[in-house]
Design brief:
155 residues, mainly alpha
Length: 155
């Protein structure tokens, strides 16, 4: 019983300490030298950021530093697209992402495969498919989606 109480007390103390560390965020001096160089334009206002935001930015900087040139270029492209979106478009994108994450793995794999095959098509063919899709009624679009989900993934 005494061991169990001590274990509970230690667990609570660790939980409290972890919460306090989480609330403190990331101090500028605790960033790596490479992170500080990357984030240098934000040094003056770093302390004003919310702790959670500091952690997110620090993790993002670390991921950026681990990327190769191609991955960085793709990330920059995605960031520019994201920056150009309205709040409503960002909300819709977040909702679609959550829907995607909620799909069974086989359905996610099927969607990824379809997207990859679409991206490999010549631009003229992609434009033709987009135009044909725009001309469909909402009911026809839904039927097409449902039919596509019933088909086995083409590999």
């Amino acid at each position: 019983m005494m061991k169990a109480n001590r274990l509970i007390a230690i667990s609570i103390a660790l939980f409290v300490l972890a919460g306090a560390a989480h609330a403190q965020g990331v101090a500028w001096q605790d960033l790596s030298e490479a992170q500080r160089q990357l984030l240098a334009p934000h040094e003056q206002r770093w302390a004003e950021l919310e702790p959670l935001r500091q952690q997110q930015i620090a993790r993002g900087a670390e991921r950026w530093l681990e990327m190769n040139r191609r991955d960085r270029s793709q990330a920059q492209d995605r960031f520019e697209i994201w920056s150009g979106m309205t709040d409503e478009q960002r909300t819709a994108a977040r909702q679609r992402y959550q829907q995607f994450r909620g799909l069974p793995p086989a359905e996610r794999d099927r969607l990824i495969d379809t997207y990859r095959r679409y991206r490999m098509m010549p631009p003229e063919r992609r434009m033709e498919l987009r135009q044909r899709f725009r001309e469909l009624s909402p009911e026809q679009r839904q039927m097409l989606r449902e039919r596509r989900m019933r088909q086995p993934a083409a590999r």
